[in-house]
Design goal:
The complex is a heterodimer of chains A (about 160) and B (about 240). Chain A is an alpha+beta fold. Chain A has helices at about 70-85, 110-125; strands at about 10-15, 20-25, 30-35, 35-45, 50-55, 90-95, 130-135, 140-145, 150-155, 160. In chain A, the strands form two sheets. In chain A, strands 1-3-8-9-10 form a five-stranded mixed sheet, with no helix packed on it. Chain A has a five-stranded mixed sheet with strand order 2-5-4-6-7, covered by helices on one side. With about 240 residues, chain B is an alpha+beta fold. The chains are: A alpha+beta (about 160), B alpha+beta (about 240). The interface of A and B includes residues 53 and 55 of A.
Chain lengths: ~160, ~240
């Protein structure tokens, strides 16, 4: 087991559970994930990125912060990109997370449900998923470089991977 | 609104009393397991907005060594025992009576030492909670994980997240002869477990806890109990 620590820059911003954050230029948006899914949207020309830390798939009408559920997070993230003048046709998505850390079996697989919901919602609005690193049984630490759109993913015991 | 805040505050205070009592039992078990060296104290029982959990309970985004016990069934939850790598190896070495391991991979024996520690702690906690809330709790076998502390804590919070934007977490710390250690136990109840605890708290049977375990304004430090002959150097 290799324990590594990534150096943080002054422009790192942590995105907690159910939060959405927008950054531009050299900003790095970071999150630590278990069964949650990180949805990273990026506009390359504008060098603007939005990171959503989605906890569950469906809001079912509940009045919670929009970033908590996939079906409220994706519209909110697109609204933020619209406000930042990123044309819809230039947005690409990258996904990470959705693990099953406790290895539970059964019909309710939160990680899988999150991945499925986010993928379908992005497909419905025509946002292409450029790359993804999802599933498995390990947590992930992710960092979105708002300048380049790259999503760096670290997992315990593995070298960092860049999407 | 003020009434609701008071009610929530009172509930947390009562939950604190319940967890303090369970911590007392777990501390006695830990004390016996380590020949009087290690004791526990209840740090806090808090409701925290989900987005702030990992910062507020100080698990950060670093890799940790953990032992997890899941309570199976509807009235359930997760207990997570966390160490940084160095402290975990120190404990394993002390229990095994050998020098701390230096190879990147943990040996099966080291993992077993920590897993057994989790088992002893978990069973003491669960027995106490079973007695206090009068609901039978069935813990899983403990398992060893090395992962991001925040990832594991988040996974444990999923049941609560389905119905609330707040997380109820109980955090316990460890002490070695008065010195605070960088080890923690987190207990994250499911919503039905929380309901069972609150139901029990509303009954007269738990009222005595308030007078026996002190106030949540101070840490519920448990005195060391050196009444057991097990050796610190014993292998699990």
């Amino acid at each position: 087991m290799v324990f590594s620590t990534v150096l943080k820059t002054k422009t790192d911003k942590h995105v907690g559970m159910g939060q959405i954050a927008l950054g531009c230029g050299p900003t790095h948006l970071t999150a630590v994930l278990g069964s949650c899914v990180a949805v990273a949207l990026h506009g390359a020309k504008q060098e603007i990125g939005v990171l959503g830390h989605v906890i569950l798939a469906h809001s079912s009408g509940r009045n919670s912060p929009p970033g908590k559920f996939a079906d409220t997070a994706i519209p909110e993230m697109l609204r933020m990109m619209d406000n930042a003048n990123v044309p819809r046709g230039e947005i690409v998505a990258r996904l990470a997370g959705g693990a099953n850390i406790f290895g539970r079996s059964g019909p309710l697989q939160i990680g899988d449900a999150n991945i499925e919901a986010v993928t379908q919602l992005l497909k419905d609005v025509g946002i292409p998923v450029k790359a993804q690193d999802v599933g498995g049984s390990k947590g992930r630490r992710v960092s979105l470089d708002c300048q380049t759109g790259s999503l760096t993913i670290e997992m315990a015991g593995n070298p960092a991977r860049v999407l | 609104m003020t009434h609701e805040i008071c009610t929530a505050s009172n509930q947390l205070e009562m939950l604190h009393q319940l967890f303090a009592s369970a911590t007392h039992d777990a501390s006695a078990a830990m004390c016996r397991w380590t020949n009087g060296l290690i004791t526990l104290s209840l740090d806090e029982v808090r409701e925290i907005p989900l987005q702030d959990v990992c910062c507020e309970v100080d698990v950060g985004d670093e890799l940790l060594t953990m032992v997890v016990l899941c309570l199976e069934g509807e009235v359930g939850g997760e207990m997570i025992l966390t160490f940084d790598n160095h402290n975990g190896r120190q404990l394993a070495a002390a229990l095994l009576g050998q020098d701390a391991g230096t190879s990147p991979e943990w040996s099966d024996l080291e993992k077993s030492a920590l897993t057994e520690t989790g088992n002893i702690l978990g069973c003491a906690y669960m027995n106490a909670l079973t007695r206090l809330i009068n609901v039978e709790l069935v813990p899983s076998a403990p398992y060893f994980i090395q992962d991001y502390g925040a990832s594991v804590l988040q996974q444990a919070l999923m049941n609560q997240a389905m119905t609330s934007d707040q997380a109820l977490i109980c955090r316990t710390g460890f002490h070695r002869q008065g010195e605070e250690l960088n080890w923690r136990v987190f207990f994250v109840p499911t919503e039905p477990m929380r309901g069972a605890m609150e139901k029990a708290l509303s009954s007269a049977s738990l009222k005595h806890l308030k007078t026996t375990t002190g106030s949540s304004q101070q840490k519920d430090r448990v005195p060391e109990d050196k009444n057991d002959g097990e050796l610190w150097s014993n292998a699990p």
